[in-house]
């Protein structure tokens, strides 16, 4: 995403509107990624905001060794890990997320889709943190192995192995929870 790197450079040169475009572009995906780390959407949004504040105030230099998105997600991951270290010093009281059903016309189908999402979310929460992160980055954010390696500070081989183990662990967890796979017609 060369455009985002260029936007960031223009922001550093004094165009504040460019940071607004970057925030609008990455707000949702970054929040969901951070949620996979801290397991709480409110905390994930706070960390996401802290990440953008860091860009606005400290203005770290983007060196172009990776894509802008990879660089931004790595900064956010570091913010999340710092947050978890700070939180570990205090009483940990996680809040369960509430899932709401849509008021669509096909309520039954929507209900089944939501139930599968809930099952998948619950299964991913039971995985090791690295497993959940690698699956989220690969399948929800469409990062390639090299970008994931940069974000997670691992080698490409480690990411490949981690992805393989994470998929197997997720499958076992889903089966343990009684998840029924749809049959192909």
Class based on secondary structure composition and strand pairing: mainly alpha
CATH superfamily of the largest domain: RNA polymerase sigma factor, region 2, helix turn helix motif
Which radius of gyration do the C-alpha atoms yield?
18 Å
Number of helices: 8
CATH architectural label of the largest domain? Orthogonal Bundle
Kindly estimate the percentage of residues that lie in beta strands according to DSSP.
under 5%
Beta-strand segment tally? 0
User: Could you name the CATH class of the largest domain?
Assistant: Mainly Alpha
Q: What is the CA–CA distance across the termini? A: 39 Å
Helix content: over 70%
**Secondary-structure element pattern, one letter each:** HHHHHHHH
Structure description:
With 185 residues, the protein is mainly α. It has two domains: 87 residues, Rna Polymerase Sigma Factor, Chain: A (Orthogonal Bundle); 70 residues, Winged helix-like DNA-binding domain superfamily/Winged helix DNA-binding domain (Arc Repressor Mutant, subunit A, Orthogonal Bundle), CATH 1.10.10. It has eight helices and no strands. α2 packs across α6 and α6 packs across α8.
């Amino acid at each position: 995403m060369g455009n985002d790197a260029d936007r960031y450079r223009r922001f550093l040169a004094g165009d504040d509107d460019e940071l607004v475009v970057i925030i609008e572009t990455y707000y949702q995906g970054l929040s969901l990624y951070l949620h996979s780390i801290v397991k709480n959407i409110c905390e994930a949004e706070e960390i996401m905001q802290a990440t953008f504040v860091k860009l606005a105030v400290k203005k770290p230099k983007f060196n172009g060794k990776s894509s802008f998105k990879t660089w931004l997600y790595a900064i956010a991951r570091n913010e999340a890990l710092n947050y978890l270290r700070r939180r570990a010093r205090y009483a940990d009281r996680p809040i369960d997320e509430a899932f709401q059903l849509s008021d669509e016309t096909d309520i039954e189908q929507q209900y089944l889709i939501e139930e599968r999402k809930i099952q998948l979310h619950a299964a991913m929460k039971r995985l090791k943190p690295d497993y959940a992160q690698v699956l989220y980055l690969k399948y929800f954010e469409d990062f390639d192995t090299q970008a994931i390696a940069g974000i997670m500070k691992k080698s490409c081989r480690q990411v490949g192995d981690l992805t393989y183990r994470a998929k197997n662990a997720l499958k076992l967890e889903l089966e343990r929870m009684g998840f029924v796979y749809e049959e192909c017609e």
